[in-house]
Amino acid sequence: MKIRTNLLSGIIFGIISIVFILLVPSQVAVPTFNNGGPSPRIIPYIVLYGMLICSVALIIQSLVFKKERIVVLDFKIEKASLIVLVIMILFGIVMLNFGFIISVIVVLPILLFILRERKPFIYGFTIFGGIGVYYLFTKVFNITLPVFGG
């Protein structure tokens, strides 16, 4: 599969920036009282309009100036990356439904197994490290992570 990188990335990030520009008013509240300072929406807007301008530049560079880098994807080679992506999505789903610790105990060993890791120490280190991260965030940083039941 051949991909024209400038054109494809310009289109994808252009669409993403337009969608997020439309979402900013519903996601970032404006303070009730005007204190004379800039709105909290200013940084998201600067970033999103910058991203939109760069996306348009990439599309113009591809279509008008014919500057393009073509990448050939071989799905046999990219299969491992796609599997890791699916497992990370599974991690998020399990975490939201069953909690962070359950997702660490269930999904990360599956990821290690698929990536052909066979040393038991690594499995234990990953599980205990994930549990340690949970307690670090909840007890030290006071940041709540999903618990059992979402």
Describe the structure.
There is one protein chain. The protein is mainly α. It has two domains: 71 residues, no CATH class; 66 residues, no CATH class. It contains five helices and two strands; from the N terminus they run βααβααα. Strands 1-2 form a two-stranded antiparallel sheet. Helix 1 packs antiparallel against helix 2, helix 3 runs antiparallel to helix 4 and helix 4 runs antiparallel to helix 5. The radius of gyration is 22 Å and the shape is flat. 7% of the residues are buried. The model has no long low-confidence stretch (mean pLDDT 92).
The helix/strand class is mainly alpha
Order of helices and strands: EHHEHHH
Largest sheet: 2 strands, antiparallel
Mean pLDDT: 92
How many helices? The count is 5
Task: Point out poorly predicted stretches.
Answer: none
Percentage of residues in DSSP E strands:
under 5%
Total number of strands: 2
Beginning-to-end CA distance, first to last residue: 39 Å
